[in-house]
Structure of Cytochrome P450:
Amino acid sequence: MKHSFSNPFPWYNHMLKQNPVTYDEDFLHYFGAKGTWHIFRYDDVQKVFQDHETFSNEYFPKIAESPVSIAMSVTDPPRHKQLRLLISKAFTPKAIEDMKPWIEQITHELLDQVEDKGEMDVTRDLAVPIPIQVIAKLLGISHKDQDKFKKWSIMFAKQPSEVDGGAEGYFQAQKEMSEYFLRMIKFRKQEPEDDLISQLLQAEVDGEKLSANDVLAFCILLLIAGNETTTNLINNAIFTFIEHPEVQEHLIDHPEDITKAIEEVLRYRSPLQYINRIAAKDTELRGKRIKKGDFINLWMGSANRDESVFANPNEFDIHRTNLKHTAFGHGIHYCMGAPLARLEANIALRVLLGRLHQFQLKDHKQPVMNQSAVTYSIKEFPVTFQKR
Ligand code: HEM
């Protein structure tokens, strides 16, 4: 049985039972390497997440021109611990809570533009712009630079080969963006403002501060880690509610259940389907010998459908009581933006269902999926709706 981008779940069901730890020598990683272990079961995925000494995050090639290669998501302790501590001084629960009114305002403004039309493309009109505008606001991007920022953000959600101008165009844009952020970092160092970049520059632990390059790496990491994933969460929620009209109706009458509906969407259609590790030493998993230097794909999308953990895993049930999905990872690299992603999805869906209802796929056509195994992500998503 083969993997399918639009519906990887039958493949997971098969592999969970038949081949839960398996080597695939033809697998091509987005950063160019070939060959990987696939790990499908919940317990194995969690075990690898927890054992950061055996399974390293330093899988991304150290490319000099890519600021991402020093970001905390691809760094091991002790450097990872140091970076995470410093960043968490600035990226605080309060900084996230302060975004609440903005997320509400952004969602209302976006809906004002489509409400009277009775139709929209959810990806284009709602799910892409919300996280981009939230991160722009967090970072303190000025109004005049918003369009530029949006262009870069959309670009970094793609693979280098999919961008206009190919890998060269991608790295050129990354260079432009890095120069833009480095200028901004320089200005904020001289004159701090009330934004995340200024806070990051001031953060201090045991007399140590983040360098300009560390702040740059984090800014770019926010774009890569925080935009498309949240877009997928909002899209996947609306898609799943359309498939379950009774849930759509229930949530309109019981908006207080939106929070648990989002957790079930995270499990049922995880925005990120897998994440990488690289073996730091020879080891063994489920009797298979993994060699130092081997790449590993941890399939959270599959772990979240493991029937030994979730009863009837292929059913979407917002009243499920076991909410221990692994969509945000586990252990020392657990998603730093999880509270923000949850807040964005919660407000967006609350505002949406407060104003509109009876969502349906336009002309009953299935949405067009992005051809990506890493994400469960909808590219074109035309829907119709009624005003409430
Ligand atoms: C890490 C998923 C939204 C920032 C991670 C990891 C996962 C994940 C699985 C763990 C990576 C690993 O173990 O190697 C998601 C999903 C999101 C989301 C599904 C949306 C639904 C966000 C947002 C932000 C963010 C909105 C910030 C604005 C980060 C950062 C890390 C991370 C900085 C690295 C943490 C570390 O290495 O210690 N995310 N993420 N994420 N995420 Fe998210």
